[in-house]
Write a structure and sequence with these properties.
Strand content: 25-35%
Shape: elongated
Strand order of the largest sheet: 1-2
Order of helices and strands: EE
Number of helices: 0
Distance between the termini: 42 Å
Helix content: under 10%
Radius of gyration: 16 Å
Oligomer: single chain
Largest sheet: 2 strands, antiparallel
Structural class: mainly beta
Number of strands: 2
């Protein structure tokens, strides 16, 4: 596990989900969860992915 002071990856999760279907289906849900716990404080949040582009 990287130390808390390591910021080389940035402050957010960065990833792309590329998917396709031969039939019409619901879009997948992609979420990132960040959890940090310190001495007397804890922080957590969820970030939901968004559609960047659609192909015909």
């Amino acid at each position: 596990m990287a130390p808390r002071t390591n910021t080389t990856g940035g402050s957010v999760a960065n990833f792309l989900v590329d998917w396709m279907s031969a039939e019409k289906v619901s879009e997948p849900i992609a979420e990132a969860v960040m959890i940090s716990s310190g001495s007397a404080r804890s922080v957590s949040f969820v970030s939901r992915g968004t559609v960047l582009s659609r192909k015909p």
